[in-house]
Amino acid sequence: MNFPRIELHHFFSLCDDTGLFQHAHYSVPNRNEGYCTDDVARAVVFLCNHSQARHDSQAMRVLAVCVSFLHFASRPDGTFHNFLSYSRRWLHGIGSEDCQGRAIWAAGTACRADVLDQPARFAAEEIFRRSARRMVRFRSPRSRSFGMLGCARAPGIDVAQDMLREGGDFLVRLFNDAAHNDWQWFEPYLTYCNARIPHALYLAYDVLRKQEYLDVAERSMQFLIQVMFDGDMLDVPGNHAWFEAGGTRSIFDQQPVEAGTMVEALVCAFRVTGSLDYLKRAEQALAWYHGTNRLGQALIEPATGACYDGLMPSGVNKNQGAESVLSYLLARAEPAAVQPVLV
Questions:
Q1: Quick check: 94 and 80 in contact, CB under 8 A?
Q2: Cis omega (within 30 of 0) on the bond before 253?
Q3: pTM (predicted TM-score)
Q4: Does a structural domain hold residue 114?
């Protein structure tokens, strides 16, 4: 399948000199909802990964703003704020575990990204070192996995390898406790951002070469492929109700973040194992955004690069928020270094 070129018009429209608006009313940034560290972290990772960012002055300006936001969100004890109002007031004390994990992912990515100058990388490394060891307190496998992605980007930092090993062991223990028969997963249910967990284990294996990490990554990834594909079409469980072992999966609403994380994890699996089947599946998952889905409706506006907020029984959700567009952009940035057909 031929995918349209990456367009950043809508992404840029969500950005200002503070950060990235988390929601949009249709295509219009919703200032009432303010900003969140979760989405700013995703933006940092995307812009550090996107091969054309260094050649785009607007992209580089947005990256500088987002790294500054990450610094602003970072607290002296290594935790992060999450929700910021349009008037630049933090709305809560400490963000969720997912917020912490995504912020660590962004800091670890930024501190080794050559698209940033050295002083900016030093600042990102300070944030990373201050926050990374807090990963041992995370009880959610997804939160651990987000942080592990950042650790894998900065393996030369001692704390990164420590937390990558600790996180990998944690995920393997969860898997061994929960997996059985035809349910090869880390919990007795599938929820959101599921593919991030095997993704983190593939990366942990790539850095540490612990065979157990690869074995569990492969078993859980094969399970996800079985659950999330209907033949050659991605058909992710909906978020109406979580999919429990032995239960019935929801069809709607299907979220863009599920397709995007699946693309990224499959590309990583290809890089680690060399299996072309994973690359084929990654292309099929990316095609979900472009109409190869249960409703046969595209979620991407090619002219602006906007992504609609999901598939509902009645059609696409016409809002175009930050999580959705960044899930797509992160997915597009990953295959760029693998095979041009996916770009």
A1: yes
A2: yes
A3: 0.95
A4: yes
* Residue 165, domain CATH: 1.50.10.10
φ, ψ (nearest 5 deg) of residue 105: -55, -45
C-alpha to C-alpha distance for 43 and 113, rounded to whole angstroms: 13
pLDDT in tens, 100-125: 999 999 999 999 999 999 999 999 99
Q: What token pair was written down for 171?
A: 């995920």
Q: Which domain holds residue 103?
A: 9-342
Residue 270: pLDDT above 60? yes
Label residue 228 by pLDDT band (50, 70, 90).
very high
For the chain, how long is the longest CA-to-CA vector? 52
Question: Residue 3 falls within a domain, yes or no?
Answer: no
pLDDT in tens, 245-263: 888 888 999 999 999 999 9
SS3 93: coil
Q: What are phi and psi of 189, to 5 degrees?
A: -160, 160
Q: Is the pLDDT of residue 278 over 60?
A: yes
d(CA 318, CA 58): 26
**1, part of any domain:** no
Strands (E), 206-303: 229-230, 233-234, 243-244, 300-301
Please name the residues in contact with 276: beta carbons below 8 A apart, sequence gap of 6 or more.
270
Give Cα separations from 35 to 13, 31, 176, 258 (angstroms): 13, 8, 38, 22
CA-CA-CA-CA torsion for 83, 30, 127, 96, nearest 10 degrees? Answer: 30
Instruction: Give the amino acid at 71.
Output: H
Average pLDDT in the chain: 95
Q: Would you say 236 and 242 are in contact if contact means Cβ atoms under 8 Å apart?
A: no
Is the pLDDT confidence value at 337 over 70?
Answer: no
Output the DSSP codes for 287-335. Answer: HTTBT-STT--B-EETTTTEE-S-EETTEE-----HHHHHHHHHHHHTG
For residue 96, give the amino acid letter: S
- Distance between alpha carbon 90 and the CA centroid of its chain, in Å? 23
Percentage of residues of the chain with pLDDT beyond 70:
97
Q: For the chain, how many structural domains are there in total? A: 1
